[in-house]
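Moderator note: this is an archived Q&A kept for reference. The question asked for a predicted structure of one protein chain; the sequence and the answer are reproduced below.
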Amino acid sequence: MSGGFHMNQKETIIFNSRDEILRLAIADIVYFEADGNYTDIVTVNKLRSTVRMNLAEMEKTIAEKLGNNRTLFMRIGKRFIINMNYIYQVNIAKQRIILSDYRTFAFQINLSKDALKKVKDIVVKINQQTT
């Protein structure tokens, strides 16, 4: 997808807990999904990792660690933060967004019409700014 969401492939984010460390390439993160006090992180190779951090804490961590690149990710509703680079389709009528790299994966997420309208408006606005 064209637009202002570009990131060096080598940049990583590390999640460190008492029992484990998780190192992910930022560009490979497709979306984050809230699960109570935990957040599932889904990557391009379809791995799902869980960290002990609620979505609000994750949003703060992303902002701190990514700085200017934090706009790569967008919070949608109460349950998701998505990587804007992977938006393939926003379908308001069917209440879903599809995140895909156009080759190896496609994740479908069901969302409210209001949340999807906001996503669509942001994507259209960014596209207009870059053309």
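Archived answer notes: The longest strand covers residues 29-35.
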